[in-house]
Amino acid sequence: MKNDALIFDIDGTLWNACAASAKGWNLGLSKLGINQNITAEQIESVAGYPFEKCIELILPGLQDQHANLLDILNNGEIESLNSEGGIFFDGVIEGIKMLSNSYKIFLVSNCQDWYMNVFLSFSGLNPMIIDFDCHGMSGIPKHEMLSRMKKKYSLKNPVYIGDTDSDESAASLANMDFIHVSYGFGSTAKETVRFNSFVALMNYFER
To answer: 134: how many CB neighbours lie within 10 A of its CB?
Structure first.
């Protein structure tokens, strides 16, 4: 059966904003007087997790010392992302526009609500997106967001497109197909359909 909807992850799938995020975190750490430098590679290593989990993994125990750590880092990241945005993978903007002529397009991510808005603002893709959800909006796990989207729009055979093993697991729990983009941040343990560029992915669905 042909897929009737394409649901995309954002980080590592449509763009890479790790450099801007790291810059924002470092801005926040400096305001707290903490002499520690976060790299884009560190942000990339936790991409796909909710914000609170990312901080816990990269800066373990620091929140116990600074009760306002989450707010300070979040504000720094907002400032940096609003200024710089992320780098879109080759073919993403044109590809989404083209695919939206044949498929219903959705976004589901573990990002914060403001981050989703920044992505939509920089991409200009809002008119092509039927709907979107993220952890910052709904506060529920990714597989529940996918299941809710599937039910809300009576989707018969949607596919979730992402770059990590957790994306594959979320799709499986939501009982939907999964496609892995191997150019992203992560890998998958299971055998699945995968593409090494967004253009190859687009060509697959446009054939």
So the answer is: 23
